[in-house]
Specification:
Helix content: 40-55%
Structural class: mainly alpha
Number of strands: 0
Largest sheet: none
Distance between the termini: 16 Å
Shape: elongated
């Protein structure tokens, strides 16, 4: 998953019809966008299939369900 700020600014300009970005208005638009459709502000770079429960919870919560420290590259 990656966050592309310039693409998000371009989307803001296209949806609102403004040419210059004002920070407060942009931030208000972004908060609304995150609340309504949070997946639209990021780009999925790679989709992983057949994850174990430990791998899934590591990505969802940033931790493993086991006591062993598990890094993402351990299982790819």
């Amino acid at each position: 998953m990656k966050f592309d700020q310039q693409a998000l600014i371009d989307t803001y300009k296209r949806e609102t019809g403004v040419s210059a970005v004002q920070e407060l208005k942009f931030n208000a638009w972004l908060v609304k966008k995150v609340t309504v459709d949070s997946a639209s502000i990021v780009t999925i770079v790679k989709e992983l299939d057949n994850l174990t429960a430990d791998q899934y919870y590591y990505w969802q919560e940033g931790r493993s369900t086991t006591s062993r420290l598990m890094r993402p590259m351990d299982w790819i």
